[in-house]
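[step 3/7] inverse_fold.run input=structure_tokens len=227
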């Protein structure tokens, strides 16, 4: 079924810079995404999900960038066309690239600064999407809930889409709600460039794939969400 964003949602995105949408992913797709993320993190952290949820690896943020590169299931869910179609309807632009993903622990401080453009190392960032993955009911959450933020829904499966330059509504070292975990998606235009971003702890990450600052993102390492 063709995904159509309503006029109210488009108006909210254009006027406020963000919109929260349910239904982009089915319950089956959300479960597949969450399970695949957890299995990928188990390999990267070399620890069971029970252990890393409870004790949080010290360098968790550094090891949680671009999970789609290590999992064909994550890649399939993100690139099945639905997120791309919704994003294109909101931003009125295509093609759109998957520039990066970043998994976020609920209840842990974030290194985000100012806005999405100043938190990731890309020239050409158009917008972001933060997918609420819900929590793990088998793991007790002993931290206080984070302060409210329009960027972090507490409804599993809901996606908050926002403009790349929209100012973040939280201070430095903000802690998102402990009840949920999240996957941030960075969406960029076709001709985007890898740049130094000192705010991003993972700014040198792409050098492991042979990129240098000033290189264009390519179709292999940064596939299209929609053409």
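[step 3/7] decode complete -> sequence:
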């Amino acid at each position: 079924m063709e995904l159509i964003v309503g006029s109210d949602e488009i108006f909210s995105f254009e006027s406020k810079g963000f919109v929260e949408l349910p239904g982009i992913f089915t319950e089956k797709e959300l479960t597949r995404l969450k399970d695949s993320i957890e299995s990928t993190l188990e390999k990267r952290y070399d620890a069971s999900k029970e252990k890393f949820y409870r004790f949080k690896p010290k360098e968790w943020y550094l090891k949680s960038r671009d999970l789609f590169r290590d999992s064909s299931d994550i890649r399939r869910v993100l690139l099945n066309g639905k997120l791309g179609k919704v994003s294109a309807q909101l931003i009125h632009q295509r093609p759109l690239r998957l520039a990066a993903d970043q998994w976020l622990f609920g209840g842990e401080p974030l290194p985000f600064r100012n806005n999405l453009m100043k938190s990731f190392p890309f020239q050409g960032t158009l917008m972001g999407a933060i997918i609420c993955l819900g929590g793990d009911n088998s793991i007790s959450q002993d931290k206080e809930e984070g302060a409210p933020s329009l960027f972090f829904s507490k409804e599993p499966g809901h996606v908050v889409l926002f403009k790349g330059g929209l100012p973040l509504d939280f201070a430095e070292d903000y802690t998102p709600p402990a009840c949920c975990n999240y996957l941030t998606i960075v969406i960029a235009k076709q001709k985007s460039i890898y740049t130094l971003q000192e705010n991003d702890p993972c700014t040198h990450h792409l050098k492991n794939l042979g990129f240098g600052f000033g290189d264009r993102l390519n179709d292999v390492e940064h596939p299209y969400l929609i053409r």
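[step 4/7] annotate
Strands lie at 18-21, 96-104, 122-134, 159-163, 181-194, 224-226.
The mean pLDDT is 92.
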